[in-house]
């Protein structure tokens, strides 16, 4: 899920040596009049690997065998359907007449000298909202207004291991491990073994974040 600016295919030998390997995901969630719309994608080393449109996740690269991927698709669809139903329920109690757009961008980079960088950035309606500080596994507010909506979302996310320690482990260990395998020329094997964690953890984490923000917005902020 993502807008990646990947440096694969950079011009010149020196540019190639400076370009990091990148695994990046982008997911967008739009909530309008009680309806939730999802879309996004994921790319590994400049190649589109997964595509999310509505409740349908497509595996573009053959990272998992068909039977395993079929189970993965069902898990993701079930999770997103649950989120959509929850938003509908709360919107009936406190309807809002405007659209809310949530964008989550996350991933990691492996540089030629062996150093790494992981990131998780969230925007709400095009404005920086939250970031995940990977070294300390903490969520930090980026909302320009110190109002209750960012505070509520931050507090909710800090309650769940999947949005703190598990996410930290994914970004620092699993994500980087995928890139290290790519760099060593064994990326196919690594991608196949790690793909379940990639989709299960990432999409689950994003849905939790959308749930925390969506509940607040759709209930009028009774936090």
TrEMBL record:
Molecular-function annotations in GO: signaling receptor activity
For this UniProt record, the keywords arranged alphabetically read as follows: Glycoprotein, Membrane, Signal, Transmembrane, Transmembrane helix
Q: Does the keyword Lipid metabolism apply?
A: no
Q: Which domain of life is it from?
A: Eukaryota
Xref: InterPro entries: Endothetial_C_recpt (IPR015669), MHC_I-like_Ag-recog_sf (IPR037055), MHC_I/II-like_Ag-recog (IPR011162)
GO term, biological process aspect, one: negative regulation of coagulation
Q: Work out whether the entry's keyword set contains Transmembrane.
A: yes
Q: Which residues form the signal peptide?
A: 1-15
So where does this one cross the membrane?
Answer: 197-218
Q: Name one GO cellular component term.
A: extracellular space
What protein name is recorded for this chain?
Answer: EPCR protein
């Amino acid at each position: 899920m993502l807008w990646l600016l990947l440096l694969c295919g950079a011009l010149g030998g020196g540019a190639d040596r400076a370009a990091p390997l990148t695994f990046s995901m982008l997911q967008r969630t739009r909530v309008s009049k009680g309806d939730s719309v999802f879309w996004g994608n994921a790319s590994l080393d400049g190649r589109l690997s997964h595509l999310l449109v509505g409740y349908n996740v497509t595996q573009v690269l053959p990272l998992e065998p068909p039977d395993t991927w079929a189970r993965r698709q069902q898990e993701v669809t079930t999770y997103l359907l649950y989120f959509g139903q929850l938003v509908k329920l709360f919107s009936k109690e406190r309807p809002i007449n405007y659209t809310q757009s949530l964008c989550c961008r996350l991933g990691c980079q492996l540089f030629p000298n062996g150093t790494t960088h992981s990131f998780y950035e969230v925007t709400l309606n095009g404005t920086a909202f939250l970031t995940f500080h990977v070294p300390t596994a903490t969520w930090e507010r980026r909302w320009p207004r110190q109002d209750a909506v960012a505070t509520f979302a931050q507090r909710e996310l800090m309650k769940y291991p999947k949005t703190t320690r598990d996410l930290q482990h994914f970004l620092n260990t699993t994500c980087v491990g995928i890139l290290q395998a790519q760099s060593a020329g064994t990326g196919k094997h690594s991608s196949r073994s790690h793909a379940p964690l990639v989709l299960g953890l990432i999409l689950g984490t994003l849905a939790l974040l959308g749930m925390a923000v969506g509940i607040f917005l759709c209930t009028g902020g009774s936090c």
